[in-house]
Amino acid sequence: MASAPSIASGDHAEYMRFALSLAKNSPPKPTNFCVGAVLVNAANNTILSTGYTLELPGNTHAEQCCFAKFAAEHGLPEDRVGEIIPEGTVLYTTMEPCGKRSVGNMPCVDRILWTREAANGGIRTVYLGVREPETFVGENVGRAKLEANGIQCVHISGFEEDILEVATAGHKNVG
Fold first, then answer.
1. What percent of the chain has pLDDT over 90?
2. Which of 55, 63, 96, 132 is catalytic?
3. Cα atoms in the Cβ-side hemisphere of radius 13 Å centred on 45
4. Is 63 a catalytic site residue?
5. 122: phi > 0 → left, psi -120 to 50 → alpha, else beta; which?
6. What is the pTM of this model?
7. Which of 35, 122, 151, 155 could form a disulfide with 62 if both were Cys (CB 3.0 to 4.6 A apart)?
8. Would you state the pLDDT for residue 175?
9. Residue 27 CB: number of other CB atoms within 10 A?
């Protein structure tokens, strides 16, 4: 994968730092959080795909872009991405995956759950930097829904301030 850094296996902080660098590519808007995501085959420490908010056309979230790009690379529609995700694949995302969307696309939690329908068990662990603020859809139940479906959610601490600064770019009133 082009421009992906070399990160030591299990270096969760460095993977979160990389996801944060991706989030900085998101165009700041008052109606979105700028989020970055990295899909990693933890078994062999390979970055499979990356994504950031609004990277692809439409009101796309980082996780959605990550999955859509990986599926497209294999000639599949996004809803079949679980078929090609290797066993042991994990997801790093700067913000808790959304449990509901205010407009348009399917929630990112449901996209993660799609991967569980494949024979390899799909994504079993999500590493996240911060909880989603209640700005757009009220209380986010993303983490609770993932955990209720057997997906481990691990908070990578130490990035909260930087993640929220990037995520909320474009939210502040000017003047």
1. 70
2. 63
3. 10
4. yes
5. left
6. 0.92
7. 35
8. 39
9. 12
For residue 32, what pLDDT is reported? 86
> Residue 144 corresponds to which tokens in the numbers above?
């609770």
What are the structure tokens assigned to 146, written together? 């993932």
Q: Which residues pair with 122 in a beta bridge?
A: none
SS3 category, 152: strand
Alpha helices in the chain (DSSP H): 12-23, 62-73, 108-115, 142-148, 160-167
Residue 160 token pair:
């909260």
Q: Which residues contact 36 (CB under 8 A, 6 or more apart)?
A: 18, 19, 20, 21, 22, 23, 24, 25, 26, 50, 51, 52, 53, 62, 93, 94
Parallel, antiparallel or unpaired: strands 125-130 and 152-155? parallel
Encode burial over 79-114: b for 16+ CB neighbours within 10 A, e otherwise: eebbbbbeeebbbbbbbbbbbbbeeeeebbbbbbbb
Written as six digits, the tokens of 175 are 């003047």
